[in-house]
Amino acid sequence: MWSNNSAAPFLLTGFLGLETIHHWIAIPFFLIYLSIIFGNSILLFLILSDHSLHEPMYYFLAMLAGTDLGITLTTMPTVLGVLMLNQRKIAQSACFTQSYFIHSLAIVESGVLLAMAYDRFIAICSPLRYNSILISSRVMKVGLGVLMRGFVFIVPPIVPLYWFPYCRSHVLSHAFCLHQDVMKLACADITFNRLYPVALVALTFFLDALIILISYILILKTVMGIASGEEQAKALNTCVSHISCVLVFYITVIGLTFIHRFGKHVPRVVHLTMSYFYLLFPPFMNPVIYSIKTKQIQKSIICLFSTQ
């Protein structure tokens, strides 16, 4: 239809073969999006308004909640637009911009989880120096570095998308724009766009995961050196929330990466499921995990709703 029109808009795709029940599929998606926005907004509000939560650990948690909100608000309009209104067209520039924010915010989230691991490492391995190491200015610098890494490193593969010619099909595989999906539609040499993301994933997600693993090995070594079993349990309990969020995020990221790279013969429904799982599950679970596992967050939530 648009094979000869390089500037034509792209077509987003919902669930192929299930178009007649898209409006029913939209209901759980809508509820999940609302839950994500509500849960992460509550976390942000509590951390900003409750002075007892003005600590480095909770500042990083606020960054995590903000990142999850960003990913949610970036994908929600197109996903619900396709499922509820059958609005499949998306301008190329809007598609590239959405792709930029999806991928950059994913790198930011990985960086925030790494910063939170650093916070737990200092808190357990050097508790007496915690306040002198994680001063406000240093926390701000770490946060700024995490943001800059995410928003700068993803620019090189996204910019070429704006000048690539698109003479093939303009139909995308999802209800949102991913770089790896868009670049396959280009009628140009996409070698750089194929190789750069592989290196980027290795130097961000996989390297971050490796450093987090090493930090927890050192944390465990320190905790095992504590004589009291009760103190050991107390120290490890402060890490449970973060470990849970790390597992939720990296399992979905690694799973999606392997599916995209090596799952050419995997049924399309698996690709779709992993993509939505990657975008929705971590933002949905993070506030739930911290609300259940962190006593200070629980107290703040109880205080918030008991005063209404």
Number of continuous helical runs: 12
Strand content: under 5%
Strand order of the largest sheet: 1-2
How many distinct beta strands? 2
Order of helices and strands: EHHEHHHHHHHHHH
Major beta sheet summary: 2 strands, antiparallel
Describe the structure.
The chain is mostly helical and 308 residues long. The chain is built from twelve helices and two strands, in the order E-H-H-E-H-H-H-H-H-H-H-H-H-H. A two-stranded antiparallel ribbon has the order 1-2. Helix 1 runs parallel beside helix 11, helix 3 runs antiparallel to helix 5 and helix 3 packs parallel to helix 8. The longest helix has 34 residues. The model has no long low-confidence stretch (mean pLDDT 91).
Which descriptors would you attach to this protein?
single chain, mainly alpha, 308 residues, two-stranded antiparallel sheet, 12 helices
Task: Write a compact overview of the structure shown.
The chain has 308 residues and is mainly alpha-helical.
Strand-helix topology:
Layout lengths: L9 E2 L10 H28 L6 H30 L3 E2 L1 H34 L4 H4 L2 H18 L1 H4 L20 H4 L8 H34 L4 H9 L2 H23 L5 H26 L1 H12 L2
Antiparallel strand pairs: 1-2
